[in-house]
Amino acid sequence: MSTGGCLAIPGGAAESGTRPVEAGCDGGAAQRWVLLEPYPGDRARTQVRNEATGLCLTRSGGTQDHAPVEQHACDAARQTQLWNLWTDTAKGEMALRDADGARYLGLVEWARADQGEDHAPAIGTTRYYYGSASMRLRFDPALLTR
Q: Which of 82, 70, 72 is nearest to 35 (CA)?
């Protein structure tokens, strides 16, 4: 994440329903994510699968800010697993919005994180993020092949 932490599945738990968190980066498979393109060429419908668990990030479907995100079996027909991918390869940053383009994936306490304050590691979706770095993920542009 742009805060210096990594998006992770705690302990690489393979149980459906496990919620991702921000964690200290260790390079492990629980912190590595694969972008799936079930609809080739359509970056507005990208799935995000955890390398350790093989499960995909899934929105709760809630429209309120801080709605939780969990991992579940990958299913491209499930609208809550489709993310709109935005990338800035020059900065090595990406943002994931829900398929409707209304809510962003990131830290629930994004405002505190932006100020460098202690914050909860919880990940969710929020509508208003005001360009926050806490709602962006870092990636190696050389690894993004699209």
A: 82
SS3 call for 48: strand
Q: For residue range 99-122, what is the model confidence (pLDDT) as tens digits?
A: 877 899 999 999 999 999 999 999
Tell me which CATH code domain 6-143 carries.
Answer: 2.80.10.50
Annotated domain spans of the chain: 6-143
Give the position of tokens 């993920």: 137
Q: How far apart are alpha carbons 9 and 69 in whole angstroms?
A: 11
- Per DSSP, the three-state class of 142 is helix
What lies within 8 Å, CB to CB, of 120 at 6+ separation is 107, 108, 109
Using one digit for the tens of pLDDT, what is the confidence trace for 36-90?
A: 998 888 888 999 999 999 999 999 887 888 899 999 999 999 999 999 988 888 8
CA nearest to 104, candidates 133, 76, 81, 124:
124
| Distance, CA of 77 to CA of 115 (rounded, Å) | 38
pTM for the full predicted model: 0.90
Handedness of CA 19, 25, 26, 28 (dihedral sign): positive
Q: Please, which residues have CB within 8 angstroms of residue 40's CB and are 6 or more apart in sequence?
A: none
